[in-house]
Design brief:
The chain is of the alpha/beta class. The chain contains seven helices and six strands. Helices cover about 35% and strands about 15% of the residues. It has a single domain (about 10-90, about 125-205), classed as Rossmann fold (3-Layer(aba) Sandwich). The model has no long low-confidence stretch (mean pLDDT about 95). A hairpin with a 2-residue loop joins β5 (about 185-190) and β6 (about 195-200). The chain has a six-stranded mixed β-sheet with strand order 3-2-4-1-5-6.
């Protein structure tokens, strides 16, 4: 009997804490640096994955995702592939703003966001449906190119909500019904029937970090 092939496993994590995360600002497509805590979160995830064979790492083209990947996988000579489809939601005119200011200046769009209305679009930005489509396309490409391997994707909070929700068929109106912590670990296994979520936002490796 031929040996059974290993499953196609896609490990997914959010970048470590950033300056804009700490300040409570919307940050989609513009740059922001990891904080000291964010770097320690990434190293803690690296310790957790130290004995996990990983064939490649994929990130968005934003520095916070690329830097997190570097800290998670130190010393590993892995292919690092960049895919702009793994970017965070583009917040348009909301980029860099705090939520209380957005609620004051854009009350109707802020209400739609909080109600998870599919019609929500920050002025000049993207809808949730658009982010779900592009992130899932990136995920499917990774799964096709790395059949029977384990791969790490480092991306962004809303991007993960969108990608995972699209992969397992969560309704558009329920995209944000689970948390995505900085450097929390999720896992999707691809089978003939499609993607199966086997781990969601596990943060055990971050215990004790402040």
């Amino acid at each position: 009997m031929p040996a059974r092939l290993p499953p196609t496993r896609i490990l997914v994590t959010r970048h470590g804490q950033t300056v804009t995360n700490r300040e409570g600002r919307f940050c989609g497509h513009f740059e922001t640096a990891l904080t000291d805590l964010g770097a320690r979160q990434a190293r803690a995830l690296g310790e957790r994955l130290a004995l996990t064979p990983i064939a490649a790492v994929y990130t968005s083209d934003l520095s916070r995702a690329m830097e997190t990947a570097r800290l998670v996988l130190p010393g590993r000579n892995l292919p690092h592939r960049i895919d702009a489809r793994l970017r965070e939601l583009h917040y348009g005119e909301w980029e860099g703003e705090k939520e209380r200011e957005i609620a004051r200046r854009y009350p109707e769009q802020h209400r739609l966001m909080r109600e998870e209305d599919p019609a929500w679009r920050p002025p000049g930005g993207e809808t949730i449906a658009e982010v779900r489509t592009r992130t899932y396309a990136a995920l499917r490409k990774v799964a096709r190119e790395h059949a029977h391997q384990t791969v790490l994707i480092v991306t962004h909070g809303t991007a993960i909500n969108c990608m995972v929700s699209e992969a397992i068929g969560i309704a558009l109106t329920h995209t944000f019904r689970f948390e995505v912590a900085n450097c929390g670990l999720s896992e999707l296994v691809f089978r003939r029937s499609g993607a199966v979520l086997t781990l969601l936002n596990d943060t055990a490796h971050l215990a004790g970090l402040k």
